[in-house]
Amino acid sequence: MKGKTLLSLAIVLSVTMTLLPILRVSAVTTNLKITPALVEDVPVGTNFDVNLEVQDVTELWSWMCVISWDPSVLSCVSVSKGPFIPDPVLWLAAPPNASAIPSLSCTSMTVPKTGYNGSGTLATIKFHVNAVGETAITITGDYLLDPAKVLITHDTINGYFKLPPPPPTSPKAKFTPAHCTMVYVCDWITLDGRASTDGWDTLPDPHSCPIEEYEWDIDFLNGTVITLHGDYIPDAFHCDGPGDVAITLTVYAPDPNPPSHPDYISVDSATHTIHQVTRPVGVIIDVYTEKGGEGPGINPDTLLQFEYPTNWADAFAPQEGVTVYAKVTYNDDPVQNKPVAFEVKDETGEAVLFRTAFTDEFGIATIFFRLIWECNKTFAGKYEVWHIYASVSVSEVEQYDIVKFRYGWLVQVDEIIAPTTAHKCEYIDIIVDINNICYTDKTVTVTVVIYDDCGVPIGFDVLADWTVQANDGLTPEFTIHIPKWAYLGTGTIYVNIYTHMPQLGGVPMCPETQKYIILSKP
Amino acid sequence: MPRDTKIYNTIKTIGERGEKPLKPKIPPLFLIILITITCVVTLTPAQASPTPALTVTTDKPAYYPKENVTTYGNLTQDGAPVPDGLVAIEVKDPKDQTLVIRTTTTGDAPPETPYVKVRSVIPCDSTGGPKDSFKRGLQAWFNLTITNYDIQPRNVCLTVNIYDSSGTPRGYDSILVPNMAGPSTSYAILCVLIPEEAALGNATVYGNVYTRWPSLGGWPYCTEESSTFLITNGGSSSFTTTTALKQKTEFSTTMQFNGNYNNTFKLPPRAAAGNYIIYVTTRYLGEEASSNTTFKVILIADFDGDGDVDGWDGIYFVDAYVDYWTPPVGEVTDPDYWRCDLDGDGDVDGWDGIAFVDAFVEYWI
């Protein structure tokens, strides 16, 4: 019995001594983790990145792991190697399936074998958000090896994704053709309402309210209205003559599981007006920019220029570069190697440039110019309207087209509204009227700072990364305290708009606006 | 109407002839319609949710500076307590300046995702970098991150309200943005001047988002977020070595579980005398409710009630003192003179005189 015990002990000791070199134990804990540890509120349908990182590692030569998640919430878009182990490496990433990257590894191929120390990114994984919900982003089957293929002990820290269900949300009707689209007479119009979003009710339990009915009202504005049904209707209708057509989509998403939250409205509708014009035949030239403006700038039926924003380019800022394209076709076929004349006119009708460019194999001639910004240039109004002309001759038939755009500070301060007098030790309300001249939303950072009579900044507020909606603007109201130590007299309110905070590289989007106030005793 | 009149006339004519009045022949169809309409009007349930009822009151009608003010009330719907409501509380002083802007719950936080949520409120430097201590008399900044979960733009009123270690509200800042695009996440840096008289030590900032000011009918979107920071006296205080960031506190709001709520704050030593208004608002299941109440702040030793402590109050005190010590000693001719018994020991003596001088000095510092 005693002999057996000794034998057992000897075996255990021997096995232990054999295994000991395989496990490397360091004083500092090495972590293999997903960063950021928590990803929140990334909207459904968008992507986000997480990193697989190693922290405080010594002599890392090779690593491998499996990354998994809940497929109902996330799906993997791509995975790419991180920089921690530099090239050359053997990078092996099995194609992601619905719920995991089944094999992910990287081994240094440096000769002689080299291990790397410290912390860094091993891989970057791009996820797509499928639906609201929560899921861990889990690391399993993980190994860290040094050049001697000895395991490096480490802790594993998983990541977590969380997207809470939305509040009660009515369905939203969205469709193409977009508002102010120009189409040719007798072209078939396809109605596509599949971009509409379902409703969401929170009572008695959060649940989706799918759209059950799509109703289209096509109003030809001549007394004729037709009604169609369906989320996608190819070749739904066409017009026999030029004119505007109002298309209204109404979506119905009744709550399948009542009672409904009082904020839930099961119906939504949207109306787009499209312009139908007679299709020109033969030579057509269409001038546009990288910010849009496709389609004729002149209505061929009325010979009037289209009103904003139909076939206009989006706004340009001072000194911004403008790439101009002119597409030349003959009976819809691109015309190559044709000289196209370009002329750009400013607000006053003065020409600012003339150019000629030849069309390429796609029938497109291209020029570039940067908007003029003289030393003392200012804008009389919110913006100027500039015109770009392009003309061409094919078979002695001359054609031209226009694209117009707004030129000005894309987002600007219209007005500062503040009381004429502010008292020390009290609060002052400052309303800033911000205008966006573009037909797309812009994200800006707004700052308001007050100086006292001696030029001392006495208070400020910042709105960072706020969206200024197109054609609408933003009118924030700031409340700022006037401190006791402010110098009495004439104070100044300065309002600035930046692309981001300056410390993050943000730059001004418009000139500073100021307003004087009287600072008086409490 | 003409038809009824005709029937009435018929009855009258027959009666005048001395014959037994005939029963009016009301057509059955008319009766059916009448009954149907009556039933529809009286029996059809209301489509909207029942309007919630919100109450507010204070534990006392009047307070002296430095006293705790406790606000409490309840939220009910159809007479039943609402255990997961949000209540905005705004207190305005007699100069119409906001003193308190907070949000509390009547139990649990609402279970559903709010339209707009305060993600965090973090004390920071002027550029948004985290910072955990600020000197008295200087400005403190707070980074308020909010998310609009709605697909529609939402009006948002962002507020921060700071409390010092004694539980006294010491300032606020706000930005009102009429159209916050949704869904989106943005942040704001708000600035609050820390008053010289703020207590040193751990302070708390409360971040909230409302549709607009509660005093103007705005209601809270979500539960409030808070963080702690340190108020230092400007020297190399030991406070600055302590990290107190992001410690969640429930400084002065006690959550209830029966539809009740309460909130306590301490009046500043130099709180303006006069009437304060407390506005409370809520929105529950799509229905809004609001209420308000007032309380009075009385300055210690402001005997004439004119909002200050001056020579006239001194004269009043002397009158009371002389009256008290005029035989028979210990009695006063005007019961109001007992207000001069500032230490509450049943007499008007030198100690009350000292208390008066203290109040006088404190007022005029």
Give a description of the structure.
The complex is a heterodimer of chains A (522) and B (365). Chain A has 522 residues and is mostly beta strands. Chain A is 3% helix and 52% strand. Chain A contains 1 helix and 38 strands. Chain A has one helix at 2-19, and strands at 23-24, 31-35, 38-40, 47-60, 62-68, 74-81, 89-93, 100-108, 116-129, 133-145, 151-152, 155-157, 159-163, 182-184, 189-192, 199-201, 207-209, 213-219, 225-229, 232-237, 243-252, 267-277, 283-289, 321-330, 333-334, 339-345, 351-358, 364-370, 384-394, 397-407, 411-417, 421-423, 427-436, 442-451, 457-468, 477-481, 489-498, 513-520. In chain A, the strands form 10 sheets. A 6-stranded mixed β-sheet of chain A has the order 3-13-10-5-8-7, with no helix packed on it. In chain A, β34 and β35 form a beta hairpin. Chain A is globular. The termini of chain A are far apart. Mean pLDDT of chain A is 91; it is low at 16-22. Chain B has helices at residues 2-16, 28-43, 311-325, 350-364; strands at 52-54, 57-58, 62-63, 68-77, 80-81, 86-92, 98-105, 116-124, 133-135, 139-148, 154-163, 169-180, 184-193, 201-210, 225-232, 253-255, 260-266, 274-284, 287-297. In chain B, the strands form 4 sheets. In chain B, strands 1, 2, 4, 5, 16 and 17 form a 6-stranded antiparallel β-sheet that branches. Chain B is an alpha+beta fold and 365 residues long. Residues 1-26, 38-47 and 235-251 of chain B have low confidence and may be disordered. Chain B is 17% helix and 38% strand. Chain B has 4 helices and 19 strands. β35 (457-468) of chain A pairs antiparallel with β13 (184-193) of chain B, so a sheet runs across the interface.
